[in-house]
Amino acid sequence: MSKTNSKFEWNNPLATVDTVTITFEGETCVVPAGVTVAAAILGHTNDHICKSAAAGEKRTPYCLMGVCFECLVEIDGLYNRQACLEPVYEGMNVKRQNEVIDKTK
Ligand code: FES
Questions:
Q1: Which atom of ligand 1 sits closest to the CA of residue 72?
Q2: 104 FRET partner, CA 20 to 30 A, in 5, 19, 77, 85?
Q3: Ligand 1 proximal residues by C-beta, below 6 Å
Q4: Among 7, 52, 50, 14, which residue's Cα sits nearest to residue 32?
Q5: Domains located in the chain, CATH noted
Q6: pLDDT for residue 6 is more than 70
Q7: Which atom of ligand 1 is nearest to the CA of 71?
Q8: Residues 6+ away with beta carbon under 8 Å from 14
Q9: Neighbours of 26 (CB within 10 A)
Q10: CA separation for the pair 96, 17 (Å, rounded)
Q11: What are the pLDDT digits (tens) for 16-59?
């Protein structure tokens, strides 16, 4: 974790916040420490975070509280992680999940 001026200017553009560096789809992102993966990604891109299992439609986080499952991502090789419930940490590698992974089959 480092302390630096973040590109995120959510409340106070002059504030100095603790940040962590994560990777989303191969792109390095410096994000505020303590936010969820969903918040970090929403601050980074306007594009989708996953695709629905049923129709393959692009999805973005909706409820941000673990209910809708519209935010499934792959985190450090683990599938089906709810981005809205996972806090970011230094070195985290996040990828879009474009299908529901059923590890029981
Ligand atoms: S945004 Fe609804 S479960 Fe994550």
A1: 4
A2: 85
A3: 38, 61-64, 66-71, 82, 84
A4: 7
A5: 2-96 (3.10.20.440)
A6: no
A7: 4
A8: none
A9: 7
A10: 27
A11: 778 999 999 999 999 999 999 999 999 988 888 888 877 889 99
